[in-house]
Specification:
4-stranded parallel beta sheet, Fumarate Reductase Cytochrome B subunit, 8 strands, binds iron/sulfur cluster, mainly alpha, 675 residues, Fumarate Reductase Iron-sulfur Protein, Chain B, domain 2
């Protein structure tokens, strides 16, 4: 077309990109703290193929998801087209495609056909996005000028491409081609146009397309569309550790002595991967739509948290990349992030589950809490009570350790000190030991274990809290003290296999204690009960004629992928009619207790999370709401009480439902009012 014009455009576009735009973003990324994300390369490649190229998470959102798949696939295909267009700037051959992809060559024809089909699908996808932005105005989206500008640029890219092809195909001597269906279709009404008009149209298409590519390349890093470059690496570098494991602060005491920051205070203390997260957010709002804190009217919106962090980072780009020790020490919380945002998170992971580019949140909120708790002493007052109880008595209520086994009165529950050869240690947990309602679950479960002849024992007063509430509330020091002491006790007894009735205990013992030398095979009671039923060691016989809806605990489901076992237990009970609501399994909404929330007042909002969740579950018109977590049980029992439904809807653990069917005496009526 014009080698000189193309050379000038390429030098300007790519030169500006590499010397300014991209260089600044790259340097900003390198200010981040180290993060080890170059392990397990094969697994990373597979996940990238599945979730980045395969867009595996997108169909979860039906129309928008499918539209995004079209646009993404089009963008991948159009990458090559961009280079072909650049190449055609140096030749007058409109069929040029670096020989391999020349139109007429087998691969070139195939590529051309695929490209035309995808250009059409991209236009369909863009129409959907215009519809969402201009007509539906989806609240989860950021409805600003930038979003519309990007859609217009992408539409322009597609239309100029088609115009260029049509101008070429309508040229005298050229024919419509099955390999270029879209271009041929648009070319047909142009066949009678003069060569002057056709020449103008194809030049308009060609140079318009070239300028849009290069302009977009430089605009992209300043917009949410930067994810087109960073999204795939962000999926590749995702955290491959179990979701339930938080990175410990190494050498806590040494750090404190050296006056190094504990937790994260400032934006530049996040890791490079966290900065890549900020670059990669598409602002789709799926995280916020799923967030129980946001749904109940709290200030927390995960999307806005990322956007605010990113704005803080971008706003100080020159300062950071200049370096020279001139970077002002500005705390993120208080300056860019409201403390309520940090304290409203229940650590449920619904946001992480939804995010198409695998942005993490729980680790960031916990890191910010760590700094607020350990360095500044700024945290909700109620947590102080829980921290003190954990420190002094090994449970968040500060109840006497010698009362830990009081729930078992009248039932044969052996102590590990008396039966050190027991196959399982049952780690009872704080709520099942002290909470009046949860103690009834412990009694049912103990009787089930006895009936099935399971070889087990408990620690009694030697057990203390696993530390989860302290850790998720930011008190890493207290967590590590508890974890080390517990591991010492467990390893002292040479414990190998552990049962828990609490998903929080399950998660911490299984995924976090290995960092402190505790390596155990941990089983949740839902799994064990399902197994005992399968083996015929527990045989449900009494009919329990109730309509049951099961509430998934976040730490059981989303964190540990245990969805079926508790349902299997319920389904094995004659008479149980198990019903599901839409927000169940991996889309189940949090009850509001996790992340230390159980021990503090909720942040300001329109509604309590537990009310919202109770209302969702009541939509199934159940007679019983079943759960498999003592925290969830507490919240849902409260929710039923607040809705004045505790007399007609029971809240039972799966062990209690099963005990009604296998035991000789029915389990006690189990609602908040009976506790
Ligand atoms: S973890 Fe749950 S509560 Fe926290 S930001 Fe994500 S969705 Fe919201
Ligand atoms: S964090 Fe993920 S889910 Fe949330 S807005 Fe950004 S890309 Fe969308």
């Amino acid at each position: 077309m014009s080698p000189i014009a193309m050379t000038l455009l390429l030098l300007t576009g790519w030169g500006f990109f590499f010397l300014w735009t991209f260089r600044r973003r790259w340097k900003l990324l390198t200010i981040g703290a180290p993060a080890a994300r170059f392990d397990r390369i094969g697994e990373r490649i597979w996940l990238t193929i599945r979730f980045a190229f395969g867009q595996w998470r997108m169909p979860r959102h039906r129309l928008a998801g499918v539209a995004h798949i079209f646009v993404f696939a089009g963008a991948v295909i159009m990458l090559l087209r961009g280079f072909i267009v650049f190449g055609r700037g140096y030749t007058d051959n409109p069929h040029f495609g670096f020989w391999i992809f020349d139109i007429g060559a087998p691969l070139g024809n195939l590529y051309s056909l695929l490209k035309d089909v995808l250009v059409f699908l991209v236009l369909v996808g863009l129409a959907v996005f215009f519809y969402y932005r201009l007509i539906r105005r989806l609240p989860r989206m950021t409805l600003n000028f930038e979003g519309l500008a990007i859609l217009c640029i992408l539409t322009g890219l597609m239309l100029t491409d088609v115009l260029y092809d049509a101008g070429n195909l309508a040229w005298p001597g050229e024919e419509a081609s099955v390999w270029e269906p879209l271009g041929s279709l648009v070319a047909s009404p142009l066949r009678n146009a003069s060569t002057g008009v056709l020449n103008f149209l194809r030049h308009l298409g060609f140079w318009g397309h070239t300028c849009l590519i290069l302009g977009f390349l430089n605009y992209l890093p300043y917009t949410k569309q930067f994810h087109e470059i960073t999204g795939i690496p962000n999926v590749f570098f995702q955290d491959l550790d179990p979701a339930g494991r938080l990175e410990p602060i190494e050498d806590l005491e040494g750090k404190a002595e050296r006056e190094e920051t504990l937790g994260i205070a400032r934006i530049e203390q996040f890791s490079w991967k966290s900065i890549l997260d900020m670059y990669s957010c598409t602002e789709c709002g799926r995280c916020t739509q799923a967030c129980p804190a946001n749904r109940s009217g709290k200030l927390l919106s995960p999307k806005l948290f990322t956007v605010d962090c990113r704005d803080n980072l971008y706003g100080r780009t020159s300062e950071f990349i200049r370096g020279n020790g001139e970077v002002a020490k500005i705390d993120l919380v208080g300056e860019a992030i409201d403390p309520q945002v940090v304290w409203a998170c229940t650590t449920c992971r619904a946001c992480e589950q939804e995010c198409p580019v695998f942005i993490s949140y729980v680790d960031k909120f916990v890191d910010l809490r760590r700094y607020l708790v350990q360095e500044k002493g700024e945290f909700p007052n109620d947590l102080q009570v829980a921290f003190r109880g954990l420190e002094n008595a090994g449970n968040p209520w500060g109840l006497p350790a010698e009362d830990r086994l009081a729930w078992a009165e009248g039932i044969d529950v052996p102590l590990l000190s008396d039966r050190p050869d027991a196959e399982y240690l049952w780690w009872v947990g704080c709520a099942p030991s002290y909470d009046d309602r949860a103690k009834k679950v412990s009694r049912s479960f103990a009787q089930l274990l006895n009936l099935a002849g399971v070889s087990y024992a408990v620690l009694g007063h030697e057990e203390s809290c696993n530390g989860d509430p302290a850790r998720r509330a930011g008190n890493e020091f207290l967590f590590q003290v508890l974890a080390q002491a517990n591991v010492e006790v467990l390893n002292g007894y040479n414990v190998k296999r552990i049962i828990t009735v609490c998903p929080h205990c399950y998660n911490t013992l299984k995924h976090e204690y290995p960092d402190f030398g505790g390596h155990y095979e941990v089983t949740h009671h839902g799994d064990l009960l399902a197994q005992l039923i399968r083996e015929g060691k527990l045989q449900p016989k009494n009919r329990v004629d109730v309509r049951v809806v099961f509430h998934d605990s976040c730490y059981l489901g989303r964190y540990n992928d245990i969805y079926d076992a508790p349902r299997d237990v319920l389904a094995a009970v004659p008479g149980v009619q198990l019903v599901e609501i839409e927000d169940s399994r991996d889309r189940g909404m949090c009850c509001g207790a996790g992340g230390g929330q159980m021990f503090k007042e909720e942040e300001k909002g329109d509604q309590r999370v537990l009310m919202l969740r109770t209302e969702q579950l009541l939509e199934a018109d159940p007679q019983t709401i079943a759960s498999a977590c003592p925290f969830c049980m507490r919240m849902l029992s409260d929710g039923l009480g607040m809705k004045d439904r505790e007399d007609d809807v029971r809240q039972l653990d799966v062990a209690e439902v099963l005990w009604q069917s296998v035991g000789d005496e029915p389990a006690p009526a189990a609602t908040a009012s009976t506790s």
